[in-house]
């Protein structure tokens, strides 16, 4: 339906002026972001994206795949940001610190959607003067809520993988102030958020917009030029509309204006992330907006901005894609050249059977080994000479470990026993005997006080070495526990099991934090990157899975082995991952890109364990034959 020419001119001028100001305001918003900057092009991506493995995995220099991976990355980044402030958010909810005009239930819902990257849009109740007619005052809020719900559901559904919007018209219980906006930002500053509301006197209407992005504290605040709605109503009446119908059209213009602003910001935001995105505003108006009063002249300035934005982002994304493609190529090339310089330094053959586990102390002056001959041996890696042969186990020794401060040396095996040795009391090991089946894995917490043990009795026990008592027991696995690993600061413990799962534990709780499922068959081993929460797991299926342990996201699967993965180890900088397999190979991977870099020549026997020294200068490999320990220099 066409509006009178005079009214169309009024609205066109208001909305055109608003578009010009918004374009400049959005440029200021972008400039304020502490996000990725390449050659003066600002991208709405975390600055540390170079260190984020999921950015590189899953795109093969393809623009569309690349753009889709960005959305996944931002969901991942959002999850990480959420976990960093989860205690802060939960404390606000539990202590009733959410302001009374904010919905507590919706706040919880927004927080619980932390894994999905989306644009959050909230509308606040309009401030409507009591001097306004009842026809306007009573019906506007009803229509505003219902029409906007339809608009977002049909155009920007929350379940979309391309342009999701999480919309609430009932988050605020009352009209809001600037103070409310900034308080809300302190809760949701990790989520891109748009807030819209209007103020209506007996003859004027004001449209307010607040918008922030998750890379700075900057809030875009804008109020559209004042619209004298009463004069517009008089124009409608003078064009043969009844007062009731004229008021109805005024209400629809108000709603359409908010839809227009919402569509523009949504389309602008998703173009920033994906240059291949097709903005909704490019479609026929009748298929997008709930009102038929939006004239092309109203939307044209906004469409022009979006078209220009898309052209700019296409060019910028090509630069970004090229930059990271070159980064991947150069990084892989650098690592391959480095690995060519690795060489076999020593070959130790003292164990009479298989070597199941190996561990260096912090300065590489001691190498600890455990094998099927029931012995625990301490070696001088620099000379290849045996230093000590520690006895105390009966049967296989499945795991050995050294504490970060080199005070404790621990071993465990098929005799269901854990022995904890100290070099100053080497003949008097502490014996821990609570497990009722093979003790398959040990891991020291970085605090040097706690020791974790995993067993075929399906339990994980956390031992306090200062008291000799059990600190915690985890019993959620339904089959043998095969491997354990602490993250770099000791707040997360990962465990793998024959039940085909990996579980992530927080030592402060008796329940697992996350259950990770990605392997087809037994999970044999886990290893944490030394400086971030990237977790590698290896399975009987020959696959290596890379996870974000703090969120449970499966980043990728590394394929190349033809047999089960028995052991994994990261280099000291987290850049390289090494895997040992029953297929008799040791493979070296770029932990950032997931690309296989090399296959080491190590013999013809199954590889049972691999272990980097803490400084990354040596790699030790254990297998199931007389030449069962090999020390490689990786300098």
Which structural traits does this protein have?
10 helices; 635 residues; alpha+beta; elongated
Tell me about this structure.
The protein folds into two domains: 5-329, no CATH class; 341-633, Methylamine Dehydrogenase, Chain H, CATH 2.130.10. The chain is 30% helix and 30% strand. Strands 3, 4, 5, 6, 7 and 8 form a six-stranded mixed beta sheet that branches. Strands 9-36-35-34 form a four-stranded antiparallel beta sheet, with no helix packed on it. A four-stranded antiparallel beta sheet has the order 10-11-12-13, with no helix packed on it. The longest helix has 45 residues, at 296-340. The radius of gyration is 31 Å and the shape is elongated. The termini are far apart. The mean pLDDT is 89.
Task: Please outline what is shown here.
The chain has 635 residues and is an alpha+beta fold. Helices cover 30% and strands 30% of the residues.
Q: Total number of β-strand segments?
A: 36
Strand content: 25-35%
Number of helices: 10
Distance between the termini: 75 Å
Instruction: State the secondary-structure class.
Output: alpha+beta
Instruction: Report the sheet with the most strands, covering strand number, pairing sense and barrel closure.
Output: 6 strands, mixed
Shape: elongated
- Roughly what percent helix? 25-40%
Mean pLDDT: 89
* Total discrete domains: 2
Question: Which oligomeric form is depicted?
Answer: single chain
Question: What Rg, in angstroms, do the CA atoms define?
Answer: 31 Å
Indicate the low-confidence ranges by residue numbers.
none
